[in-house]
Structures are given as structure tokens and as C-alpha cells.
Amino acid sequence: MNTPLNVLFLCTHNSARSILAEATLNHLGAPRFRAFSAGSSPRENQQPNPLAIEALQRAGIATEGLHSKSWDVFAGPDAPRMDLVITVCDNAAGETCPYWPGQPATAHWGYADPSEVPGTHGQRLEAFRHTLLAIRRRLELLVNLPPDRLDRLALQHSARALAGEEARA
């Protein structure tokens, strides 16, 4: 595989789960994978949730350049061609997505929204850390797939199968 597989993670606000997935896959998967994230209704101030950034930094994962953005950015003619699009929240999974050039493989990996957890800063940060670990487990499986499992049809099957991995773990 000479060029990296482009993976887009989608969530409604592109402030927590999709940001965690983008940063983690770029950390674990380079140079075989290149991750992006976006949302259907990104945060107005274009900033990820500060707890997502803190959880990533505490895990030793780079956060430079992370910002909330609309999925429309990736549907335009100048956007990178996606090989795999993964929704990570139930709201984005039920929304009508834009047309993705090249008809990428798709999958849904649902995670509870750590932003919804009440409590102290420490309790809320723990919810983000827990979500980050769950995302990381799946991404470790993805990046370790053999090359023959990463062509378009196999990639869709593999990504969708990984959605069930957590239930068995």
C-alpha cells in the first residue's frame, strides 16, 4: 500500500468522539492511514471540547490542528478522497450524509457521548478517557488488519465487523 487510506470520522458536533478518533488514528495508523473528522452541525467556535483535548494530551496523542468542521468540507471537489467513513455517534448515523466522491466504505461505531456525563472535572475527564480507550481498542484492530483486508469491499466488511468487536470484548 503506497498511499495512506483516508478515514473520515463523523459525529454531530465534531467536538468529542470524532475528534478523539481522528487524533488517535493519526497517532496509531501513520503512515498507512490518514484520519479526518467532521460533523453535521459543528460547534460554532470551531473548537473541540476541552476535555477531549485534555484526554488526548494525557494519553500522549498530538492535538495540534484539531478543530471542529462541517462534513461539507469533505464533500467538495477539492476534498481528499475518503476510503472509509465511520459515524461514531447515533445522531450522525441517522442523518442523511452528503455524497462522498468515490463511494467509500462506511461503518457505524457507536459510543456514548462523554460530553453528557455530569459531575466534577475529574469525573467528566474520566468519561472522555473511557471513550478514548474504547475508540483506541477498535482502531488498534483496524490498523493491524493485513493489506488484503483493506481494499474497498473488504474494508467495509472489516470496519463493520469491528463494530461488533467491542460487544464481545
Automatic annotation (TrEMBL):
Residue span, Phosphotyrosine protein phosphatase I domain: 5-145
Stored SUPFAM superfamilies: Phosphotyrosine protein phosphatases I
Span of the signal peptide: none
Alphabetized UniProt keyword annotations: Arsenical resistance
A Gene Ontology BP annotation from the UniProt entry: response to arsenic-containing substance
PANTHER family listed in its UniProt record: ARSENATE REDUCTASE
Protein name: Arsenate reductase ArsC
Organism: Hydrogenophaga crocea
Organism phylogeny: Bacteria, Pseudomonadati, Pseudomonadota, Betaproteobacteria, Burkholderiales
